[in-house]
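Colleagues,

For the teaching module next term, I've prepared a clean inverse folding example: a structure given as tokens, and then the sequence designed for it. I'd like students to try predicting residues themselves before seeing the answer, so please don't circulate the second half yet.
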């Protein structure tokens, strides 16, 4: 599933290649992609609108339009936004096609084999009603800036363990399963550590790891795994998977300490990877 670095990579592509262009026509092939409203509402909301900017909150892409509305795109599991030449042969699972102004003629496609992703045009003045989960999103560690003291306060009030806390979009927005494991490993913190047991040096390491891992992953264009469909706007995969220290490496020796063997546990269908030497279990 695309996480903050992947969504940020797509956002940067939109900023470079799509912002400033006008949507000339929209076709919706799959209603599930527009399930929050309707195909008609997406077509009416986008046709003739100019995309003014490309923003991001957590895993949500938010593009303000010159109509006053905002286009929201959530890629969920397998969504892709692709910029393709007009007339390109259609790919399967392309659910929305937006024809853009400018030469050469190009289209913005929303592809999504598993159809969990969505697109919606909403009125930002009524976001609390139209997309209520946006108002409930936690702090975005890159877009909002998250200081050590902010993080310390966030953690001090939380019961529960570190890994599920990092995944909770209401607390910190944008981190998913891959980057939670990589961040905790870089911070030398066990995923089962109670969040409110961290001392200030632990919080500093977690804070630094969060910024370092996410920034490095954005720099690498995100992670493209064998089982995921993530590519950027131009259809290229990321390369940060080559830098994963724990995720997907169960049974391998930890390259950080050279002593631990990476472990994997599955809780609620999600894998957690960690090094038992770098990330000692809480007592
Ligand atoms: Zn290790």
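(Answer key — instructors only)
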């Amino acid at each position: 599933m695309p996480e903050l670095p992947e969504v940020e990579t797509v956002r940067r592509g939109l900023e470079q290649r799509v912002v400033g262009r006008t949507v000339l026509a929209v076709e919706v092939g799959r209603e599930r992609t527009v399930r929050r409203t309707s195909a008609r509402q997406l077509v009416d909301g986008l046709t003739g609108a100019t995309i003014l900017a490309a923003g991001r909150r957590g895993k949500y892409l938010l593009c303000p339009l010159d109509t006053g509305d905002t286009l929201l795109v959530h890629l969920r599991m397998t969504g892709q936004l692709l910029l393709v030449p007009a007339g390109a042969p259609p790919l399967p699972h392309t659910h929305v096609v937006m024809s853009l102004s400018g030469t050469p003629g190009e289209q913005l496609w929303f592809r999504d084999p598993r159809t969990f992703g969505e697109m919606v045009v909403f009125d930002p003045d009524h976001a609390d009603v139209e997309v209520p989960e946006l108002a409930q999103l936690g702090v975005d560690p890159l877009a909002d800036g998250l200081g050590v003291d902010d993080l310390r306060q966030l953690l001090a009030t939380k019961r529960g363990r570190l890994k599920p806390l990092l995944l909770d979009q209401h607390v910190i927005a944008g981190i998913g399963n891959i980057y939670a494991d990589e961040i905790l490993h870089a911070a030398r913190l066990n995923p089962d550590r109670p969040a409110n047991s961290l001392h200030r040096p632990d919080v500093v390491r977690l804070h630094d790891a969060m910024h370092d891992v996410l920034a490095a992953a954005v720099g690498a264009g995100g992670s493209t795994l064998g089982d995921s469909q993530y590519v950027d706007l131009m259809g290229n995969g990321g390369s940060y998977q080559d830098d994963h220290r724990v995720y997907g490496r169960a049974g391998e020796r930890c390259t950080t300490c050279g002593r631990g063997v990476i472990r994997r546990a599955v809780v609620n269908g999600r894998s957690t990877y960690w090094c038992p030497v770098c990330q000692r279990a809480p007592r």
